[in-house]
Write a structure and sequence with these properties.
387 residues, mainly alpha, Na+/H+ antiporter like fold
């Protein structure tokens, strides 16, 4: 049903993910009840598997040879748009929630402001790639856009990890000490070491493997193991699995360990994942928090544009690229939804997961409508496409 829903909305110009989420909402416990509360609660293993695959494939997009060509521009634009989105969304959320539209305690308002700031960082790589390919865009702008999107999601994972560490201390009234500030960086360091180590082992194994199905089995096994080990030792599973992908991509030539997985399993896994994401939605809460989703979408796009423009100017990036790349970063779906779902697994912040999921999915619905059009507009203005 999810897949058919994706095909249906694709006919009217929307990405398939919108159809998956819509079907999930339709089947959810709060609408038809076809999917029960119990099933939703017990579906964490499927969510984890999908997130592990996404993180691995994202890492595969970070190839050093591609990043070297425009390293200064890519770095400044990536940092600029990330900081811009985080600050704009956090401040916008703080102001909006203080207007007393919602009955939140001051502590919850601050916590949600930081959480939404962290969730604003990532950009939907699938929607971006699909739109660029659909219009057959060529030139420097699409190449730089792909690099920024890949690094953007890496930045999103790191920003999320650091933010959650801070919010947990804030909620638990723990004193902010030097060790508590260093802890997230230590966690990320060990997560990176785990991902690199499992990546090197996978690379060694793939030297002796040529048969397609065996490559797929080893690859899936290793990104699941990396994700699982990171969870077991309280590390950052998404970051560790992404570093696994980075390691493999920069040592093994070609796209064999990525293409086989993407082509064979991506549609199935993402259809199930986004249907489950939709099934987590409480329709009454979705309506209630829709104004907050609109605020989120407006401030996120404004922050992306302002930050990327500033970063482009500082790095002497061509003016057209600096001016329009922020608009091209409008699409946001999978990673943000996955991180919102992941909140319910983290002690001390799990109470914010329901709000986050409903706001992010409502905002995704907005972005799935305007995002592709904003990206097409940016491609046209930079000369990447003619019409």
């Amino acid at each position: 049903m999810g897949y058919l829903g994706g095909l249906l909305v694709n006919r009217i110009g929307l990405p398939k993910v919108s159809g998956y989420v819509f079907i999930g909402i339709l089947l959810s416990p709060t609408v038809t009840g076809v999917i029960s509360h119990e099933f939703v609660k017990s579906s964490s293993v499927i969510v984890d598997f999908a997130l592990a695959m996404v993180a691995y494939i994202l890492g595969g997009n970070l190839r050093c040879s591609d990043l070297k060509k425009r390293s200064k521009s890519i770095f400044y634009v990536t940092i600029g748009q990330g900081v811009g989105a985080y600050v704009f969304v956090a401040v916008g959320t703080l102001i909006f929630l203080h207007l007393d539209f919602f009955d939140f305690a001051p502590r919850d308002i601050v916590a949600l402001a930081f959480i939404f700031g962290a969730l604003s960082l990532s950009t939907a790589p699938a929607a971006t790639v699909a739109t660029v390919h659909e219009y057959k865009a060529k030139g420097d702008f699409p190449s730089m856009l792909f690099a920024v999107v890949a690094l953007d999601d890496a930045l999103g994972l790191m920003g999320f990890a650091l933010t959650i560490a801070f919010v947990k201390n804030f909620i638990l009234d723990a004193a902010v000490t030097v060790p508590s500030l260093i802890e997230p960086f230590v966690t990320l360091l060990f997560s990176a070491l785990l991902g690199i180590s499992t990546g090197l082992v996978l690379i060694w194994l793939l030297k002796y493997v040529r048969e397609k199905n065996t490559v797929v089995i080893f690859t899936i096994a290793f990104f699941c193991l990396t994700f699982g080990f990171a969870q077991q030792f309280n590390l950052e599973p998404l970051f560790a699995t992404m570093l696994l992908g980075v390691t493999v991509a920069n040592v093994i030539p070609g796209e064999r360990p990525f293409m086989y997985v993407e082509k064979g399993y991506e549609v199935v896994v993402f259809a199930i994942f986004f249907v489950l994401a939709g099934a987590h939605i409480d329709l009454s809460l979705l309506v209630e928090y829709f104004p907050l989703a609109i605020v989120f979408a407006i401030f996120r796009l404004s922050g992306k544009w302002a930050g990327s423009f500033a970063g482009g100017m500082l790095s002497a990036t061509p003016k057209k690229t600096s001016k329009y790349i922020g608009l091209a970063l409008a699409p946001q779906a999978g990673i943000a939804i996955g991180l919102a779902l992941f909140l319910e697994r983290i002690p001390a912040v799990e109470q914010y997961s329901v709000i986050a999921i409903n706001v992010i999915v409502a905002k995704t619905a907005i972005n799935e409508i305007i995002g592709p059009y904003m990206l097409k507009f940016a491609l046209k203005k930079t000369g990447a496409i003619s019409s």
